[in-house]
Design brief:
By secondary structure, this protein is mainly α. The protein is 81% helix and 0% strand.
């Protein structure tokens, strides 16, 4: 039953992810690969689309995967699965947070989770970078292609813009425009 499988898989992802959509990426990558739902390249393409479209990243990507595997009902099941744990947890936390906000154990838990979330995000970034820059593995021939240099230059420029606090929407629009121009000009 694909609908139950989508709901359950994304429920697990939603339940065990702390730190938002980016921290969710390694879990999504593992689960999608384990089920054979999407290739790594398809997933990375949709990560880019998820970032370029309105709405939370986790909802966008779960809806897409669900829709690819089970049509509109699959999209609904995956989306409900990823949202349900957060919804239930936040209801509980909202009721009891004032009682525990100064608790040493709670503060320690939050202190321990922050570096783990950063590590998960970095892991997903490295995995995606390998697929973008070295789609066929790390080989010398990749360094001879225009696509590699266009991607590297775009990454460098957009990183500088992000560090200079340029609004993300502007960065996304510039990246899309340069990618389109490079694709047409270089036949990428």
């Amino acid at each position: 039953m694909i609908f139950w499988e989508l709901f359950y898989t994304f429920f697990k992802i939603g339940l065990f992810t702390f730190g938002g959509g980016y921290a969710m990426l390694p879990l999504i990558q593992n689960e999608v690969a384990a089920h054979g739902w999407l290739s790594q390249e398809e997933l990375i393409n949709f990560v880019a689309v998820s970032e370029s479209t309105p709405g939370p990243f986790a909802i966008n990507i779960s809806t897409y995967v669900g829709n690819q595997m089970g049509g509109i009902p699959g999209g609904i099941c995956a989306t409900l699965g990823v949202v349900m744990p957060s919804f239930l947890i936040i209801l509980i936390v909202a009721k009891i947070f004032d009682q525990f906000k100064d608790n040493k154990i709670m503060k320690g838990c939050m202190t321990g989770l922050k570096p783990a979330v950063i590590g998960l995000i970095a892991s997903a970034m490295l995995s995606m970078a390998q697929t973008v820059f070295f789609p066929n593995g790390i080989m010398k021939s990749v360094l001879l292609t225009p696509a590699f240099y266009v991607s590297a230059a775009l990454f460098a420029v957009m990183s500088v813009l992000a560090l200079k606090k340029v609004h993300p929407i502007i960065i996304i629009c510039i990246s899309a425009a340069v990618g389109i121009a490079a694709g047409y000009g270089l036949g990428l």
